Prior knowledge:
The chain is of the alpha/beta class and 275 residues long. It has helices at residues 67-75, 94-97, 116-120, 122-126, 131-144, 160-174, 190-207, 218-224, 258-272; strands spanning 24-34, 40-51, 56-60, 82-87, 90-92, 101-104, 178-182, 210-214, 227-231, 238-243. 33% of the residues lie in helices and 23% in strands. Mean pLDDT is 86; it is low at 1-17. The structure holds adenosine-5'-triphosphate and magnesium ion. Magnesium ion binds next to helix 1.
Amino acid sequence: MLDITASFQHPSSDRAPKPGEQCIAAMNVSHTYRGDDGQRVAALRDVSLSVAPGEFASVIGPSGCGKSTLLGILAGLDAPTAGVVLLDGQPTTPRQRLGRIGLMPQRDLLLPWRTALGNAVAGLRVHGVPGNIARAQARDLFARFGLSQFERAYPHALSGGMRQRVALVRAALASGPVLLLDEPFGALDALTRADLRHWLLEAWQGLGKTIILVTHDVDEALLLSDRVFVLSPRPGTVRAVIDVALPRPRDLAVQGSAEFVELRRRLLTALEAQL
Ligand SMILES: Nc1ncnc2c1ncn2[C@@H]1O[C@H](COP(=O)(O)OP(=O)(O)OP(=O)(O)O)[C@@H](O)[C@H]1O
Ligand SMILES: [Mg+2]
């Protein structure tokens, strides 16, 4: 059910980051792929961004501008062709980031032969967490995400929204303080999206994580975020940073406020300037 009365607290309001404090940052990150035919594709060019502890940041930009590439690099799946990724101000290698940063990929990639709970604990098990401990942690989040009745269901028997929530639980469980979400609600209908935004904000409040969300949805970015990074078309580079100083807790009604309408206008203008 869509709960339009839900209010969204800022999880870090009692531990607001100090100015300049950074949790994860990309410095002058560029990435060029070499395709199977030897052709080079420049996906990212000189991307610099910094996200503070407990901050909710979004990345928005046209299809193919390198958003998934950026998240893959931040998560340690790929080494950038140039530039560096910092964690807590320290330069890191991809291997040092792998497993410390949670990534929910663009497709949910649930294993069809595992139950919902089995899928959710997969990341923890890889890290050697004993099964009973992993399952207890997952059950906690399943309750929070409205999945308790579906622990034993296999992915084919779950709705699209449920599959996304299972994937979200898996990413949240397997990560340290940073969670990267690649269009987690991309393929869902508007009502399910709205519902899952609510789940995400609830989870964010409870977990106190730093989140970087990739989305194509301007309203979603503004409703959820403290800041929105706007990328140019490929090769993607940061063209604008929009501060979303809307008060928290937020509810869906904020979308009708003059401040929200003005932020939407600024964000759309920044996006259109790229075309
Ligand atoms: N493994 C790869 N090998 C070669 N080229 C790649 C590879 N992965 C991505 N690319 C290319 O890099 C560019 C950026 O891709 P990426 O998936 O990062 O874009 P995106 O912004 O996430 O797009 P979308 O919004 O459609 O998901 C694209 O031109 C894509 O074709
Ligand atoms: Mg992508």
